[in-house]
Amino acid sequence: MKTYLISGALGLGLAAAAWAFLAPGETGPATAQQPVGSALAAVSLPETLSSEAQLGKRAFDAVCADCHGANGAGFDGAGPPLVHEIYEPSHHADMAFFVAVERGVRAHHWSFGNMPPQQGLTRADVAGIVTYVRELQRANGID
Predict the structure, then answer these.
(1) Which of 99, 101, 78, 91 is nearest to 137 (CA)?
(2) 47: Cβ–Cβ under 8 A, 6 or more apart, which residues?
(3) Crossing angle (nearest 10°) for helices 123-139 and 51-59
(4) Measured on CA atoms in the order 98, 100, 101, 102, is the torsion positive or negative?
(5) Exposed, middle or buried by CB within 10 Å (0-12, 13-18, 19+), for 110?
(6) 115 in helix, strand or coil?
(7) pLDDT tens string for the chain (143 positions)?
(8) Among 7, 60, 73, 92, which lies 20 to 30 A Cα-Cα from 46?
(9) Residue ranges of the domains in the chain?
């Protein structure tokens, strides 16, 4: 009986310490350098965007930026950066973006959870978004 009491007290103490260390609004060691809600990638903008990329930026800002951040830089706690080598054309072809929008994506590279299908975008909208993301990637050395 004494062993159970000691084990229980120790367990409660460890749980309380963990709660105090990782209380809501605070970060643990893994995210101490990355404030919640900040961009996950530094993105350099191209000097100009093609007309299709300009249209894509408008659609991106309206539908994608809430999770993927301004200019595809990602958003801590919401979604991954698209200006990242994981999304280079040789690893995620343009069609992957169309499929992600139409069907959603199961989490596989990041721990943000699954991406649901996105409503309200036409194939032309997605084509513009892909052009925009690819132009951002090229401006950041991702081909």
Answers:
(1) 91
(2) none
(3) 110
(4) positive
(5) middle
(6) strand
(7) 554 434 443 333 333 333 232 233 332 333 334 445 789 999 999 999 999 999 999 999 999 999 999 999 999 889 999 999 999 999 999 999 999 999 999 999 999 999 999 999 999 999 999 999 999 999 999 99
(8) 92
(9) 51-139
Any idea which residue has 């894509």 for tokens? 56
Q: Please state the separation of Cα 31 from the chain's center in Å.
A: 15
Q: DSSP string spanning 79-108? A: B--SSSGGGSTTTS-HHHHHHHHHH-B---
Angle at 111 between CA 74 and CA 116, to 5 degrees: 75
Six-digit token string for 36: 């919640």
Output the six-digit token pair for 35.
Answer: 């404030």
Residue type, 57: K
